[in-house]
Structure formats: C-alpha cells, structure tokens
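ugh ok fine here u go
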Amino acid sequence: MISKDTLFALSLFPYLGFLWVVTKSGLFPRLAIIGFYLTLLFVAVTIPAGVYALQKYGLTLADVDFLHGGAEVFLTLSNIFIVLGFRQAIQEKREA
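structure:
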C-alpha cells in the first residue's frame, strides 16, 4: 500500500506537467497561470510548516492555528489570482 506521503509527493509530477502544458499553450490567462504557480508556493510553505508543527508542538499543521492560517494565506492568494485571471479573460472576450 502506498503511504499518503508518497502519494502526495507523486502527485507533484502530474501538477508540474499541467503547469508546463498551460504555460506553453498560451491558452490560459497570465494571472491564472500565476495563480497555479502560487499553488506550488502554498505546497512549499505548507511542508516545512507541517514539519515545524510536528517537531515544536507534537501536533499536525491543522492543529496549530497560526501556522495553518499562515500557510492557507498562500492558497487563498493562488485562488484569487486564478479567479481574477479567468474573470479578466471573460471580460476581454465579451468586449471583443
């Protein structure tokens, strides 16, 4: 059986492939692509925050509110960029 940590690490490869395709295709709005890349930043922040929560407090990241909230800020930012990017693309399409 594959552990959740291994599965999490393996899931990075399809996501990197997705990023490569949408970046090269030129079909996605630039702001949305930035948002998708910010999701990687969220992951990059969440992993060390989770390790710190476990080592310092003996708890999972979800149980240490200030660390969890700080990490979730990056997910919120990525979502905002994605929404704004597609919103802008829809508005430009309507104007054309």
